[in-house]
Design brief:
Layout: H1 7-25, H2 33-45, E1 48-51, E2 56-58, H3 64-85, H4 89-103, E3 109-111, E4 117-119
């Protein structure tokens, strides 16, 4: 049987392997439980949303400091995983974004790649 080499198939295979490697590497331990609780509260209030790239976004300027702290921790994790996998931190962030958004409760604001916001 002849195997067809398609760039799309290769990307899917790569994404699947990356996703599996990240899951095996451990789930996203973004912050201490108290920080996670405050982030969850901020998401529930609509002051913070999640984005397509794996980073939180402040929807209210008063919480920018909290978002910066969360994103610094996420960036460190993404950079570490990227180095382990030999890929970009951006690619890792997008994989984590899918996990974060999937686990986010209904009502969470999501920033789409085109710049628009929608609620989950």
């Amino acid at each position: 049987m002849t195997q067809i080499h398609s760039p799309l198939l290769s990307r899917r295979k790569f994404a699947g392997r990356l996703f599996a490697a990240i899951l095996l590497g451990g789930m996203l331990g973004l912050s201490a439980p108290a920080n996670a609780q405050s982030l969850n509260s901020l998401k529930a209030s609509g002051k913070v949303g999640e984005a397509y790239d794996g980073y939180a976004r402040a929807r209210d300027g008063s919480v920018q400091g909290t978002v910066n702290t969360v994103n610094a921790k996420r960036r460190a994790i993404y950079n570490k995983r990227a180095g382990e996998q030999g890929i970009s931190a951006e690619q890792v962030g997008r994989v984590y974004a899918a996990q974060i958004i999937a686990k986010a409760p209904g009502g969470t604001w999501i920033l789409m790649e085109n710049g628009s916001w929608r609620q989950k």
